[in-house]
C-alpha cells in the first residue's frame, strides 16, 4: 500500500473536491473557502461552521463546502455527513474540539490553494495572492 | 574572551507583527515562529537594529563599541573590513514568547503560559536571583492559577478562555512566576499577578495557533472607491500585552580607545526601560514595545 503524508492526503482531497464545484457556484465557493480559516481563528470552529450551516439553505456553495469538509475524515468527526458536521462539532469534548480545529485549519489551507489553482481569474475576487 | 549574559523582558503595548513575508497559508502575512515548537518569537536581528537606534544617546564611541560601526557601503560590498573596523560587543538574542494574552469571559483577559514556555524561559533567566522552580507537566486540559486570580469564574471554579472551558487548580508557583516576571516591570505587578495562568502544554499549543490576533486589511482603489482587485489580505500579530523573554550577551569592547568590560556593555544596552518600535506595520500602529531587564546582576557568564 502506498503511504502518503497527511499533507498529501489533505491536498488530494481538496483538489479533488474543488474540481467538482460547478462553474456558477465557484465565486461563492471561493468566498466561503477564503473566509473559513480566518473565521475559525477569530470565532472558533463551532462558530465558523455555524456560519456555513446558516448559509446552506440559500447557498449551494456553503452546502458544498460542508460536504467537502465532512468527507475529509476529520479526526473525531468521521461519521458526520455535511449537514451534520456543525452539530457534531458542537458535541465534541474539549480535546477532540482542539484537534478538529487544527485539522480544519490545515484543510482550509489546502482548499484555499486548490481554489487559487483551479478557478479561473475572472471567478476570483479581491483576495490577495490570487492574481496570476 | 569571556561573555556575560543578561535576560530581558519584552512587553508588547500594541499588536506586534514580526512577520516572515507572504505565505500561502490561511494568513497572508503570518508572524515568525520557531520551526519545531511553533512558538512565536522576535528575531534578535530585528531587536538589535531597533535597540541601536534607541541608544543613540550614548557617546558615539560607546555606541559603536556596543553595536559595531555602520557599514560604509550597504550590501555585500560593505562586508569588507577597513582600518579600525570591529565587531560590536553586544549580542542580541531572539525574544521568545513566555505569556500570551487570551480573551477571557471573566476578567477580560488572562496572561497564559505553560510548563514548556516557562521551562524554556528558565534557561534564559538562569543566573538571576529568585527564578521560580519549574512547574510540573500535568494532564490537561487544565489551568493553574495563583490566589486571587481575576479570570477565574468564582461560582464555577473554571476559566473561560476563548472557546475553552478549563478546570482550575490553585498553585503557589504560578503566582511566584507572575511576581518574578513583574520584577522587570514593577508597575505591572498587579496586572501580571492577577491574570497569570499556566495551562497544560497541549492547550498552550492550541492557543499558540488560534489565539493570535488576525486582522483583515484592504486597499481602496481611489478611482472606484471600493477594494482594489487582489488587495484584501490577512495579517497576524501577537496581541497587545504579550510577554517575551530573550537574552543579551556581551564581551569586552573591541573598539580601540573605548575600553568597556562585558558588564559595562550590558549596563549601557539595558540602562533603562527602552521604548521600542519593533516589527512591521508601524504606520498602522503595530509594534510599540517596552524592553526591560531584571534588577541586580546576572551570575551567568560563559567562555
Cα distance spanning the termini of chain B? 6 Å
Order of helices and strands of chain A: HHHHHH
Helicity of chain B, as a percent range:
10-25%
Backbone structural class of chain A: mainly alpha
Mean pLDDT of chain B: 92
Q: Helix and strand layout, with pairings?
A:
The complex is a heterodimer of chains A (132) and B (303).
Chain A: H1 6-19, H2 26-43, H3 45-55, H4 60-70, H5 85-90, H6 94-118
Helix pairs in contact in A: 1-6, 2-3, 2-4, 2-6, 3-4
Chain B: E1 3-12, E2 41-42, H1 44-54, H2 60-67, E3 90-103, E4 109-113, H3 115-125, E5 142-145, E6 152-153, E7 158-161, E8 164-170, H4 172-182, H5 189-195, E9 196-199, H6 201-210, E10 213-220, E11 227-237, E12 243-250, H7 262-269, E13 274-277, E14 288-293, E15 301-302
Parallel strand pairs in B: 4-9, 5-8
Antiparallel strand pairs in B: 1-12, 1-14, 1-15, 2-3, 3-4, 3-12, 5-9, 6-7, 7-8, 10-11, 13-14
Helix pairs in contact in B: 4-5
Key words describing this protein structure:
heterodimer, A: 132 residues, B: 303 residues, alpha+beta, 13-stranded mixed beta sheet, two-stranded antiparallel ribbon, 15 strands, globular, CRISPR-assoc_prot_Cmr5 (chain A), antiviral defense (chain A)
Amino acid at each position: 500500500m502506498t503511504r502518503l503524508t497527511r499533507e498529501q492526503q489533505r491536498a488530494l482531497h481538496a483538489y479533488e473536491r474543488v474540481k467538482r464545484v460547478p462553474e456558477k457556484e465557484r465565486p461563492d465557493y471561493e468566498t466561503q473557502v477564503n473566509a473559513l480559516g480566518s473565521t475559525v481563528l477569530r470565532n472558533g470552529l463551532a462558530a465558523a461552521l455555524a456560519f456555513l450551516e446558516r448559509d446552506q439553505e440559500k447557498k449551494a456553495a456553503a452546502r458544498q463546502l460542508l460536504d467537502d469538509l465532512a468527507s475529509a475524515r476529520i479526526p473525531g468527526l468521521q461519521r458526520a455527513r455535511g449537514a451534520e458536521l456543525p452539530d457534531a462539532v458542537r458535541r465534541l469534548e474539549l480535546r477532540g474540539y482542539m484537534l478538529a480545529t487544527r485539522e480544519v485549519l490545515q484543510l482550509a489551507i489546502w482548499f484555499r490553494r486548490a481554489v487559487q489553482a483551479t478557478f479561473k481569474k475572472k471567478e476570483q475576487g479581491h483576495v490577495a495572492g490570487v492574481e496570476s | 574572551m569571556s561573555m556575560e549574559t543578561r535576560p530581558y523582558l519584552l512587553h508588547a503595548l500594541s499588536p506586534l507583527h514580526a512577520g516572515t513575508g507572504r505565505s500561502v497559508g490561511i494568513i497572508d502575512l503570518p508572524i515568525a515562529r520557531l520551526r519545531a515548537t511553533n512558538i512565536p518569537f522576535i528575531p534578535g536581528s530585528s531587536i538589535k537594529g531597533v535597540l541601536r537606534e534607541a541608544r543613540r544617546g550614548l557617546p558615539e564611541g560607546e555606541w559603536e563599541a556596543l553595536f559595531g560601526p555602520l557599514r560604509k557601503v550597504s550590501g555585500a560590498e560593505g562586508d569588507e573590513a577597513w582600518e579600525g573596523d570591529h565587531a560590536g560587543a553586544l549580542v542580541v538574542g531572539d525574544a521568545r514568547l513566555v505569556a500570551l494574552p487570551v480573551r477571557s469571559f471573566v476578567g477580560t483577559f488572562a496572561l497564559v503560559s505553560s510548563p514548556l514556555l516557562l521551562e524554556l524561559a528558565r534557561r534564559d533567566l538562569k543566573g538571576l536571583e529568585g527564578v521560580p522552580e519549574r512547574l510540573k507537566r500535568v494532564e490537561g486540559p487544565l489551568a493553574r492559577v495563583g490566589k486571587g486570580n481575576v479570570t477565574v469564574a468564582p461560582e464555577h471554579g473554571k476559566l473561560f478562555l476563548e472557546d475553552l472551558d478549563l478546570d482550575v487548580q490553585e498553585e503557589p508557583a504560578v503566582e511566584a512566576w507572575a511576581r518574578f516576571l513583574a520584577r522587570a516591570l514593577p508597575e505591572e505587578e498587579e496586572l501580571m499577578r492577577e491574570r497569570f495562568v499556566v495551562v497544560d502544554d497541549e492547550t498552550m499549543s492550541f492557543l499558540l495557533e488560534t489565539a493570535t490576533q488576525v486582522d483583515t486589511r484592504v486597499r481602496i482603489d481611489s478611482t472606484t472607491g471600493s477594494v482594489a482587485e487582489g488587495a484584501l489580505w490577512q495579517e497576524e500579530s501577537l496581541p497587545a500585552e504579550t510577554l517575551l523573554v530573550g537574552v543579551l550577551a556581551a564581551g569586552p569592547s573591541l573598539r580601540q580607545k573605548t575600553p568597556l568590560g562585558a558588564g559595562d556593555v550590558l549596563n549601557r544596552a539595558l540602562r533603562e526601560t527602552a521604548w521600542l518600535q519593533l516589527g512591521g506595520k508601524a504606520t498602522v500602529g503595530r509594534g510599540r514595545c517596552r524592553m526591560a531587564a531584571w534588577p541586580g546582576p546576572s551570575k551567568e557568564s560563559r567562555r
